[in-house]
Fold:
Amino acid sequence: MPFARITGTGGYLPPRIVTNNDLAADLAARGIETSDTWIVERTGIHQRHIAEPGVKTSTLATAAARAALDSAGLQAGDIDLIIVATSTPDFIFPSTACLVQANLGVGGAAAFDIQAVCSGFVYALATANAFIRSGQAQHALVIGAEVFSSILDWNDRRTCVLFGDGAGAVVLSAAEAPGVLATRLNADGRQQHILCAAGTVEAGKVTGDPFLRMDGQAVFKLAVNSLVQSARDVCAQAGIAIDDIDWMVPHQANIRILNFISRRLGLSDERLVVTLDRHANTSAASVPLALDVACRDGRIRAGQTVLLQGVGGGFTWGSVLVRI
Ligand code: UT7
Structure:
């Protein structure tokens, strides 16, 4: 049975940077109070990238995919599986993965989206791993991409300051040695109400509430507890000790969540890859974007063990343990 290895990474952020001060001024003009101090102290976020109106998820996803293909030294035609994790698809259908495939100028490979909100990338990576291990794919493009700004209520300061737009991607290829050491996915649908965008289109009209709503404190507690347990489970499955993890690349939601997790696991904060200060929370894009940053700046090196973790709406969470 073949193994699967990450052979390339890529990322793309829309050029427009919105700082906390920009956002505070914008909200103040509408009578809503927030501040750089509050946002930094409670979350660790300093700025986010926001797509221009009309820029779609497939555009960001395609740019990240091209960068990942370049880094793997592959052509789009070498890819036989495309999975896009997103909660902000361009359309109800076709899938964003099919749009990316068309943008790359190829056809024939399997292409589909995965919807697991901020856990979407680890769900997609675990799925691609299963395709490769079972011999159904040789080279998979696994992408997390979001224009999350499109589902934010810009009058709700409890949520609109937390998120940003972007895309990250990896190429996962069949290999003789692992690669992906273990995967662990979980969900608890009974917690759906704590983080949701509970609207849809019906008879040509938006019904329900199409904006993201969150019970921040409930999500915070569940995120810490579920990711600590998930890290322990995935390491046990792979037969490695927590201390053997060289780098943790968790979903980038809140620096306080990340620090709680690393401390509960007994890992020093130096082993955490943190991009939320510059990217904010980009949902399904946050893990592959952070992985790409740390691979390109030379922190993550060949032979190292990396824990990728996602957590978010559904409620969903999961871990993928990889050797680079
Ligand atoms: O990607 C999915 C995963 N998402 C997450 O992991 C998010 C998890 N949750 C969190 O990160 C945190 O709960 C938040 C950052 C969302 C909130 O931090 P908190 O420390 O839990 O604050 P809080 O909700 O308890 O609010 C504290 C105060 C409240 O005022 P009162 O009631 O004490 O007077 C809020 O109204 O802060 C107020 N507040 C704000 N003030 C200024 C809430 N948002 C803001 C804001 N600016 N943007």
